[in-house]
Amino acid sequence: IALIESNLSVSLTDEYKNYLHFINARTCWCKEGNDFFLAKYNDATIKVLMSVMFPPDSVIELTKLLRESIYDHRTLLLPGLIVIGCDYDDEADAYLIYDTRVDSPTYKCILHWPYYEDNMEVGEGVGFVAHSLKDFLQLPVNPEQLQEAEN
User: Fold this and answer.
1) Which residues are CB-neighbours of 82 under 8 A, at least 6 positions away?
2) What are the respective helix, strand and coil percentages of the chain, to the nearest 5?
3) Contact status, residue 78 vs residue 99, Cβ threshold 8 Å
4) Each residue of 15-48: pLDDT tens digit?
5) Which regions of 10-68 does DSSP assign to beta strands (E)?
6) What is the largest CA-CA distance in the chain?
7) Strand, helix or coil at 19?
8) 3-class DSSP state for residue 64?
9) What average pLDDT does the segment 64-90 reach?
10) Which residues pair with 95 in a beta bridge?
């Protein structure tokens, strides 16, 4: 926890710290058959296939990597947002983002970010998934339940 906070200059929430203690620095996968969730954008809701939740060392490595840009004066992943997992949407690989910015309207929210999107505005380039990590961990559902939710 201290390594994530110091390397990424964030203060983790109690819920995320509890989750990290629970996973004991391991990668986590969904139970097969319950590995989908919905990401809501302004003009669409998409079905997403969950891949993995990252252990702390991957959170640090990928967050740092996705904050960098090959372009001058441009940041991809905003400070205070951390990468906690990856998934697959209809287009390509994407990431689960956790908002640690206390003053943000999406503080503690789980967001879906297709990394090919430069727009970090929630609803536009970033989809809303859940109000908290606890809510998210209860979200992945089977395809039949998703079909009902989409209708």
Assistant:
1) 4, 8, 10, 59, 63, 97, 98, 100
2) 30, 30, 45
3) no
4) 999 998 888 877 766 666 667 888 889 988 888 8
5) 28-29, 36-40, 45-53
6) 45
7) helix
8) helix
9) 82
10) 86, 113
Say which amino acid occupies 33. Answer: G
Sign of CA dihedral 13, 95, 36, 40: positive
Higher pLDDT: 151 or 99? It is 99
% of the chain residues with pLDDT over 70: 81
For residue 85, which phi and psi values (nearest 5 degrees)?
-170, 175
Give CA–CA dist 16/51, Å, rounded: 19
Count Cα neighbours of 71 within 13 Å in the Cβ-side half-sphere.
Answer: 6
Q: Give bridge partners of residue 88 from the DSSP assignment.
A: 49, 93
Retrieve residue 144's tokens: 């039949």
62 φ/ψ angles, rounded to the nearest 5 degrees: -75, -35
Q: Which two tokens stand for residue 103?
A: 């003053």
What pTM was computed for the model? 0.85
Please give the structure tokens belonging to residue 116: 């090919």
How big is the CA angle at 140 (ends 18 and 99), to the nearest 5 degrees?
A: 50
Question: Please, are residues 124 and 41 in contact by the beta-carbon 8 Å criterion?
Answer: yes
Bridge partners (DSSP) listed for residue 86: 52, 95
